[in-house]
Amino acid sequence: MKRTTLITLKTLTWIACLSVAGRLVWGMVTNDLGPDPSAAIAFATGKATIWLLAISLAITPLRRLSPRLNWLIKFRRLFGLFAFFYATLHMLTYVALYSGFSVAAMESDIAKRRFITMGVAAYLLLVPLALTSTTWAIRKLGGKNWNRLHKLVYAAAICGVIHYWWQVKTGVITPLTITLVLAVLLLARPVTAWLQRRKARAAVTA
Ligand code: HEM
Questions:
Q1: Considering the entire predicted model, what is its pTM?
Q2: What is the residue range of 151's domain?
Q3: Is 206 inside a domain boundary?
Q4: Could you give the number of structural domains in the chain?
Q5: Which of 10, 26, 135, 185 is surrounded by the most beta carbons within 10 Å?
């Protein structure tokens, strides 16, 4: 891929990823976040986190399907870090706007409300991934260990989806789309790995 195309695509990715935060800031400035601004911020940042995680998870299976898509790897870290950025904003929304910085309220929520417990678990799983996202950390850990550690992203996505289901009201099925997307992505990984191995074997035989 040409350098100019890559730079253009990266710029567009940054704009798209930042647009969620931009819309929220604009909504705050113009006082246009609806009747419950805290919920509007929690919903937007929560959804951005889970969808960005799904996009970053889609990159490996897509690359395995076609070598022409190898360039996508240049975007995986960006999507993963934006997912962490929104997860952090989401967590801070809870700490500041839902709990009013009260440690006692947070402790009680984590102990008593299972959807909060699951959200915290999802967030904690993302922390080591963000901390080891630098080239320096990859070199220090070694590729194999780094890959093993970064499988935690699947656990984080699963916890995120459970957290999503547990916070919606009974009968609401809005988390269905992201659940199906993540299920396909989780299955795609072993399937595309198998297809890749089969292709390699066929090439050797030929
Ligand atoms: C410290 C960790 C977390 C806490 C305390 C937390 C808390 C919350 C709260 C309070 C809500 C809004 C519930 C309501 O007002 O009814 C929410 C919604 C949500 N959270 Fe989290 N969360 C956390 C981590 C995460 C993570 C890591 C993800 C994604 C992987 C996530 C995804 C979502 C989604 C998708 C929604 C619902 C959005 C919607 O209904 O439109 N959360 N969370």
A1: 0.93
A2: 3-200
A3: no
A4: 1
A5: 185
Max intra-chain CA distance, the chain: 67
pLDDT tens, residue by residue, 21-38: 999 999 999 999 999 999
Nearest CA to ligand 1 atom 10: 94
**Rounded Cα gap, residues 103 and 136, in angstroms:** 35
- CA 141 to ligand 1 center in whole angstroms: 31
Asked if 124 contacts 161 with a C-beta cutoff of 8 angstroms, the reply is no
As a whole number of Å, the end-to-end CA separation of the chain is 30
Is 205 contained in some domain?
A: no
Residue with CA at minimum distance from ligand 1 atom 30: 160
Q: What is the pLDDT of residues 154-192, one digit of tens each?
A: 999 999 999 999 999 888 889 999 999 999 999 998 998
DSSP string, 127-155: HHHHHT-SHHHHHHH-HHHHHHHTTHHHH
82 domain residue, yes or no: yes
| Token couple for 38 | 């805290």
Using CA positions, which residue lies closest to atom 31 of ligand 1? Answer: 46
Structure tokens at 169: 């009201």
Sign of CA dihedral 179, 183, 189, 192: negative
